[in-house]
Amino acid sequence: MAHRFSQTTWLLLAVALVAGILIYQAFVVVLNGYIAAVAVPTEYFRWFGKPRQELALAILHVAGAIPVFLLVAGAILAVCRALRSRSNHSLMALLAGMLLCFIYWAVVFVAFLPADLPPEVKPFPVTVRIQQLFILPWWSLPTAVAPWLGFGLAAWLLRRRREA
């Protein structure tokens, strides 16, 4: 059965789609970039020792993933509230926007090389860049899944509220 949406509904879905793009860009791309740029003292890694460097990295990624998780969940809830959304359509439009932004940055990462690479630096081949995008080390998983878990938490909270 095909859904027939009014013009207002289409506008709300378009707003939700753009909001999803902006949420991903702001909290995953920009905020994660700032968090990743924070200098970690070398003493932190020395304290863990050579055998536990991956554990040290995992703890850093968990600490960086928490604000992304919470901000994405909060932003999804805020947008749904602002749109006065009672259906899953707005939620799916938000998810589609987040996925579109992820796909955009994935294509940029794989297809384009930085323009300011020194001539002595050989970039990785496309196959390696694709592998780096999808086969992550275990210690970086918190950063990779944080926005999607934030979305999931928001969707769960919205569903609970509708059922109450």
Which key features would you list for this structure?
single chain, 164 residues, mainly alpha
The number of strands is: 0
Q: Tell me the major beta sheet.
A: none
Report the C-alpha radius of gyration, rounded: 19 Å
Contiguous helical run count? 6
Run of helices and strands:
HHHHHH
> How many structural units, i.e. domains?
1
Helical content stands at over 70%
Low-confidence stretches: none
Mean pLDDT: 90
What is the distance, rounded to the nearest whole angstrom, between the alpha carbons of the first and last residues? 28 Å
Shape: globular
Strand content: under 5%
Secondary-structure content class = mainly alpha
Brief summary of the model shown:
With 164 residues, the chain is mainly alpha-helical. The chain has helices spanning 7-37, 42-48, 53-82, 88-111, 126-134, 141-163.
Structural features, described:
The protein is mainly α. The chain has helices at 7-37, 42-48, 53-82, 88-111, 126-134, 141-163. It has one domain (7-163). Helix content is 76%, strand content 0%. Helix 1 packs antiparallel against helix 3 (53-82), helix 1 (7-37) packs across helix 4 and helix 4 packs antiparallel against helix 5 (126-134). The chain is globular, with a radius of gyration of 19 Å.
Topology:
Blueprint: H1 7-37, H2 42-48, H3 53-82, H4 88-111, H5 126-134, H6 141-163
Helix pairs in contact: 1-3, 1-4, 3-6, 4-5
